Every structure is written in C-alpha cells, then in structure tokens.
Fold this protein.
Amino acid sequence: MDKADILIAGAALNGLAAAVALAGPKALRPLDILILDQADPTKYARDTFDGRASAITASSRRMLDALGVWEAILPHAQPMRDIIITDSKLGATARPALLHFGEEDHGGEPSAHMVENRHLYGALLDAALASPTVRFRTDTRIASYSFGPGFVSIGTEAGDIAKASLLIAADGRASPARKAAGIATSGWSYDQTGIVTTVAHERPHNGRAEEHFLPSGPFAILPLPNNRSSLVWTERSDDARRIIALDDQAFLAELSRRFGGHLGEIEVVGPRHAYPLSMQIAQSFTAERLALIGDAAHVVHPIAGLGFNLGLRDVAALAESIAEAVKLGLDPGSASVLETYARWRRFDTVITAMATDGLTRLFSNDNPALRALRGVGLRAAGSVGALKGFFMREAAGETGHVPKLLRGEAV
C-alpha cells in the first residue's frame, strides 16, 4: 500500500496547480502528494490536446508568481491592454463598442494576460516534477474509492492501493470521485458549443481583446503573442457540428464573417476543438475526506473567460485551509478544514455562475427589446467609472476574502 499526505485525482491544470501549491518550490510546509491520472500528463502540454487559451487575471497572475511558475509562463503571455464589447448582428458592417475596459480601469496594469493552455500545463508540470515530495501514478484508472473514517483510500485497475488523509478531486466535469462520494450536481446544457482555434493576422492587435455578442452567442477574439489571437466562438450545437465538419476554406469563410477585416488577412494556424457548453455546480464541494476543485466542483459558460481562474481560486482557498491546519499540527483532511474550504468557495462560485448564466441568456438571442435593453445597460456601465472598476475587480477575484496565494503570498 502506498501512503501520502494527500492524493490528487487528475493531472490537468487544476490538479497540477493544487500539487504545486501544496508541495511546490514556494510551499512553506511541503506535503507528500501523489497525483493519479489515467493519461500521461506530458501529453496535455500540446495544442493538439487542448487548443484553448486562458485569460489569467491579475490575482491569478500573482498566485502563479507565488507558486514560482509565472517566470516560465511570462515569455508566452500577452498582456490584455484593453477590452471592447459590441452587440451586433452577424454580417454587420460596423460594430460600435458599447463598453470599453482599459488599463486605467485596473490601476494602470493589464487586467489579464492571455496564455495558451499548453504553456500553463508545461510550467505547472515542470514545477510538480521538480518537487521531491510530488509523485505521479499514470496510465491506470482509479477503480474504487473508500472515504473514511480517518483516511481515504483508492484502488486502481492495475491493483495498486493508495491511502491518504484527503483526496482532492480535479478529475473534470464528469468526476468519478464526486460520483463515488454520492455528491449530486445541479445545472443544464445551453445547447451551445464553443469552437476554439487560433488565427494569425496581418495587423497587430495591440493587446486588445474583443467580445462580439452575436445572436448565436459570443464571439471572442483574444490576443496572443506574435500577431495571433485565440478564438472562442459560440454557436448553437447543430450549427457548430456543421461548421466543425467544413473543409479548411469553408471554415475560414465562416470564421471571417464573424471576425471582420480590422486586423487584415487572417489564417487559421491552430487545430479546431469543440466543447459542449453547460452550467453545472456540485451540490456540495466536499464530502468525508474529499474536496472538489475546478470542473469537478463547477462548470460555467466561458462568456466571461473565468473558468481556469475559478479553479485557481479553489486551489488557493483549499491550500490555505490545509496549510493553516498543518501549521497547527492538525489533520489536513479533517472536517474542519473541509468546512472552511466549502464555506469560502461556495458563495463566490454560485454568484459567478448566476452572473455568467444571466449574461448568456441575455446576449444569446436576437430579441429587439432585449437588444435595446442590452445597449442601454452596457452604455450605462461604461459611463460610470466606479461601476466599471467594480466589475473589473469582481471578475479578477479581488473582492471579498481573498486567499493569500491570490494576493501573491506563499502558504
């Protein structure tokens, strides 16, 4: 039997971030971590696996710096200098900006940095591999779970058994660990699919991110280094299946109708990926000897680009809850630790999910009355500096009780 302080199910972004927070180069009291994943995590650091990019908010950047990985990520990061939001019909010749956020709305610093997920995977994996107290067990599926009392144990299909004080489930929206613990979820499908790819363009974007609200859903142009942009293109699921199946020339033609000509000639330079969009929240973020993080705990619409940032907020709150217990010589998987974590994250997650769901329903339609209401609301928000600043801080996770890691402090 293999023993560790903490088991982590899932070696993707959130699982790696949790391992680095608890046992990486900057952890004040490194714990013994065992990460389990049925796949080889080195394969995650490729755009053929995950062609997405993440908007790393200012607080998330401070956390990645506190974890000791931002220096490796920075050469691949594009500062987001400003953000414009439009609301128009497909094929409109003009898209006036109804709302604009600039660096002046965020204390003179970029509100976020765009980073391709493959670079985030690579930096976090390197930090985890470099830790003497982080181990990996891959290429085998977890077959059984036993939660408490006093410890959690898992058995793999290869016949191995591992035991620890706590299991952190970072095993995705279908989370076998969550299901094994009997935790139900609430949510729904949007009947929308997110098409993701990368384009190169003739003219520089100057760090500008664009979110164009079209009748089928948002079309986001997100700046990347070297005159490239990541696209998050929302379509109704039937239309998305048709678009994804097009040949390269027809796909580019559909893309160009939505992209516009302001950045000159464009070329698709990344693989196409499609992700069904839904909202899902676990009815509890914890169970005996179990903590859910990332998509295992919550899935929200990408309309605000907060997915990975929410996962980092989970990691920051859980790592601090565990660190405080360990500092006092207490059990890191105890009920009091898990209660602190759940209480810390539940409200923020529900509020964020409600906000993204409301925005999705408000903007993913072509109702004339709602279109007029949206225009009035966006212009009003843009004219009130304090309101814009609040939106920016809320999106960046800088309101409420902010965990130490998100403030740039080690735990």
The radius of gyration is 21 Å. Residues 384-388 have pLDDT under 50 and may be disordered. The chain is about 35% helix and 30% strand. The first helix runs from residue 13 to 23.
